[in-house]
Amino acid sequence: MFMNTRLPATVGRTDLLPDGSDADFRRLLHGLMSYGRMIDEIRAGFGTLLGVSGIQYEILMAIQRLEGETGVAVSDVAAWIRRSGTFVTNEVRSLMHRRLVEKGKDAADGRKVLLGLTNDARTRIAALSPTQIEVNDLLFEAISEVEFREFGEIVARLLPCGERATIRMDAIVRERLVAEP
Question: Is 19-142 assigned to CATH 1.10.10.10?
Answer without folding.
Answer: yes
